[in-house]
Amino acid sequence: xxxxxxxxxxxxDNMDDLKSAFGMWREIFVWCLLSSLVIHVVCGLLxxxxxxxxxxxxxxxxxxxxxxxxxxxxxxxxTSGVIVFVYKTALFPMSSLDAFLWGVGQTIVYxxxxxxxxxxxx
Length: 122
Hints:
Mean pLDDT: 83
Strand content: under 5%
Order of helices and strands: HHHH
Shape: elongated
Radius of gyration: 17 Å
Number of strands: 0
Low-confidence stretches: none
Largest sheet: none
């Protein structure tokens, strides 16, 4: 997957690719991965900036990046497959906007669940 594939996803010129189950799964998964990495990089930089004098803050940024990468790899791939299964079973067509919304929506749900676990520990 190169920059041209991401450009095709952003412009929505891949309607033929979204007819196959793998094409739908891939686009939902890529949006989930990219949005998760963006959120985790921003939060990691914010944590690093605010904890710059703390001796353990050195590990905050890499841990956010690892969490932002592995959550979509494991949970995002499974839930993207379930979404594709529902679309294929119901014979719904999927547009690039649908894939974008499902991928970003997964990231929002994962972020809310992770944030709610922090409040329990306080």
